[in-house]
Amino acid sequence: MALQHQFAKPFRSCLRCSTGADSQYNLSSRAFWTSAIVRTEASVEHSSSNPDIPPPARLLDPNRVATPRLERRLLRETRQQPVGSRRRRAALQSTSNIPFEQLPYQCFQEARNLLLADRQDKLRQIDEERRRIAKVQATPAELCGGEYVKKGRLVRMQKHLEDWKILADINDPVIKKRFEDGQGDMDRPIYRYLADRQWRQQRRLILLQRINQMHIVPDLVPYLNPTAEVRLIFGRRDVHPGDFVESQNSEMPPRLSIRVFDKGERLVSIVVVDPDVPNTESDSFDSRCHFFAVNVPISPSSTSVSLARIADGSHTIRPWLPPHAQKGSPYHRLVVFVLEQKDGESLDTEALKRMMGIQAAQFNIRSCMDKIHAKLVGIHLFRTKWDDGMAGVMQRAKIAGADIELKRMKPEKLPYKKKKSERYR
């Protein structure tokens, strides 16, 4: 202890001799091995090592959030989706706000000049193809080999024209940037092409896998080739194909996002079917319709469809029936069908009700498609089963059977038959 005081006193005297040392450092007269100063230094080091406090939600920028935690907070508190990829948002945090097409890189600008020259060639080809189409349209059908041949030729030429429009913009980096940022105009062919390609690379494959795993084909439809992307949203939850949805979440009608990849507006019918309704009398399963609406307009730029809103209008044939499953029954598959009406013709709701005599039970989706002459273009599915809130949902919807528990019947034993004794000799 005396040795420590011997070294400490000369050091403190030197600090006192320096100009303003006492006022600058605010040294204590106690020796610096005491616990008070150690606690102070420890608290200072702890406060300096703490991470920065996250900014408030109003200051979160959808273009610059780059961590999963901030992305979830932005979506939860402001209900805004992050813009573009996470890699792009992380790059924007450390770079200046220079327009993408004006990046000061010589190689990048030279490549853009080459792509612009190629685009000008494609635009000349588009103008030439339009003149050819106008020439064929002005030519009488007798000189083209008949009306059928002329119509077929025009269809092929229009398809070739759309291909040229896609090729003109497919290599433009600004087009790709806007598409990745979610700012693409779906009325333009290039953005529809990119969206269709992105959907077919992953999400469509997952959808077809779930459909095959859960035997939607051939239990409900004999063949399926979806061409429109259908998303299902219950509240804030985006339901993936085949997910289980709790009964309290599915009590209210969901919201659909139906994205088509060809131009023009069309009318569709939306049908929700449960093919797993137990029938104890026949010891089999029946199909039940949970929702049916017709004459719903959609387009590439108008994709959102709220089943709660169209249920209040003149589109609905069958209002929303909450999905339910009795205790003891296996899980129920709820399949959402999107049917495109023939030639965009509007269907008479009242006449359709009288013609079909539709009821909740004994519903056949194949017969329905034949009667309204509709084509299946989109599909989605989710599952439900008995849970703690199912009895309350069935009671509020006035559905009987909440107090019934289904049990599997044991197979009857075969009558015992004594075998011949000679067999054991």
Question: Any overview of this molecule?
Answer:
This protein has 425 residues and is of the alpha+beta class. It is 41% helix and 16% strand. The longest helix has 33 residues.
In short:
With 425 residues, the protein is of the alpha+beta class. 41% of the residues lie in helices and 16% in strands.
Major sheet, described briefly?
5 strands, antiparallel
**Element pattern in H and E:** HHHHHHHHHHEEEEEEHEEHHEH
Let me know the average pLDDT: 83
Alpha-beta content class = alpha+beta
Low-confidence stretches: 14-51
**How large is the share of residues in beta strands?**
15-25%
**Whole-angstrom Rg:** 35 Å
What share of residues is helical? Answer: 40-55%
Strand order of the largest sheet: 7-5-4-8-9
Question: Whole-Å distance between the termini?
Answer: 103 Å
Helical stretch count? 14
The strand count comes to: 9
Shape: globular
Secondary-structure blueprint of this entry?
Elements: H1 2-17, H2 21-25, H3 35-49, H4 68-77, H5 86-93, H6 106-138, H7 147-169, H8 173-180, H9 189-213, H10 216-219, E1 229-234, E2 237-239, E3 255-259, E4 266-279, E5 284-298, E6 304-306, H11 307-310, E7 316-318, E8 332-341, H12 349-356, H13 365-372, E9 374-384, H14 390-396
Antiparallel strand pairs: 1-2, 1-3, 3-6, 4-5, 4-8, 5-7, 8-9
Helix pairs in contact: 6-7
